[in-house]
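Much of our argument rests on the idea that a fold can be written as discrete symbols. In the encoding step, the backbone of a single protein was reduced to a row of integers, each denoting a local shape. This step matters because it turns folding into a mapping between discrete strings. For completeness, the protein is quoted in full, as a sequence line and a line of structure tokens:
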Amino acid sequence: MARPKPETFDKQKTVAENRRARFDYAVEDRYEAGLMLQGTEVKALRAGEASIAESYAEVKGGEVWLINANIPEFSHGNRFNHEPKRPRKLLLNQREINKMMGAVERKGMTLVPLSVYFNRHGRAKVELGLAKGRKAQDKREYIKDRDWKRDKARVMREQG
């Protein structure tokens, strides 16, 4: 079965978004990956508690891991609660993993989580971006382009 195009990811409920990543990195490819979670982690995500602001993904031993993502302990989890910042395995096709591994090793790219969400089947997913870091000059150009697009849209709206 073919994977959906990045524009058509089936996002029903977005739990966490890494808006800073879109500014700091130039995202070239996007992937949808499943998350391997424990029971209390799913409950905490459904409550809308998660942060992926300072997290990243890495390929280790032919597997992709989400590192430093914060899913706080579930309030009613008692002794079965999970560790908030534990590494979590991401579920991807082997072909996608190989493509990511090649890009990270050869091209010096980074795997950045862009958002965590639930799809229409109730499965927790992570949108991963294969990205290249922006330098300060690139960031200034990005801000200038974004501001120009906003001003252009405002003028077009006023003109009718």
Observations:
- The first strand starts at residue 13 and ends at 17.
